[in-house]
Structures are given as structure tokens and as C-alpha cells.
Design a protein that fits this description.
By secondary structure, the protein is mostly helical. It has one domain (3-171): Four Helix Bundle (Hemerythrin (Met), subunit A) (Up-down Bundle). Helix content is 74%, strand content 0%. Helix 2 runs antiparallel to helix 3 (98-114) and helix 3 runs antiparallel to helix 4. It starts with a helix and ends with a helix.
Amino acid sequence: MNTTEKVQKKDFSKIETLNVIIMSFAYIGLFFSGFIFQNPSYNQIVGILGWIIWLLGLILAFSPNIVFKNRGGVAKGKSYIHTTKLVNDGIYGLIRHPQYTGGMVIAFSMCLIVQMPLTYILAIIAMNIAYFSMVFEEKRLIIKFASQYENYKIEVPRVNLLIGLIRKLRKS
């Protein structure tokens, strides 16, 4: 690795770290905003819909914990993040980033659950930062899996579950 590549990697790492810090604060703020603020014009039906969507987001967000352990070539006793194989089936056959997508869905659902302007602002921040995190992650995955990941990117959408499902059904 030459000096320019080292500097770029270091700068990239700083941006990623800042990204994670901002995203963490936004999600913590989303979580606590529901406990701190009470909305006098709260719509219960919208709130219930929010909890249903929240559950979908939770399933997406935690799916890598199971999928990578089972199909990602993770060594026994290691965390799911130590995957050695590209997983492109199951939920990963529909979207490339279920964990980040789940986080974005949870942020959106918090808007429906809490129904406060501060929550809307925090959700927009969290969803945008999560999207940037996906972009950073994809750069690492291209380095790790090379053309295999490039082909996967062509076949499977980044976050759009509906398009992923339609593509999957068309192939079947």
C-alpha cells in the first residue's frame, strides 16, 4: 500500500467513525424521544402501525446474526461479522443490506410510534447516515469479494425489499 492509499484509508476511516457516532446519537435520541416527549394529539392507529413496522425492522436488523453464522463461513466462536463467504440467498437474495435497511425501517417506525417533530428530524438523520454506512460497507465488500460482489450488486438491490422480491419472483 503506497502513501496515498494509506492517507485515503485513514481519511475514509475518520469519516466512517464520525458517521457511526452521528448515527448512534440519532438512534439513541429516537429511542429516548418516545419516553421524554408526549404528543397530545397522538393517533393510536398510526402508533399501532408503527409497532408493526418496527417489528419488521427488528427482524431485518438482526437477520445477519443468524444468516452469517449459518451460511457465511464464520469460524466457530467468532462473531457474525467475520464472514468469509459472500451470502447471496435468503434475505440476502432480496436486499444486500438487511441490517442497515432494518435500522432505517426502525427509524421510520419510530416516527409513527412517537409522532413528534424531533423524532422526524432524528429519523431523517439516522436513515441518511445508515445509507452512507451502506456505501462505506460496499467499498469494503468489493475489496473483500471482488467481482463476486460486483455481480451481486447488479442482481440484488441495496435496500428496496419490494424490487428484490419482484426480481426473485421473476427468476423463479
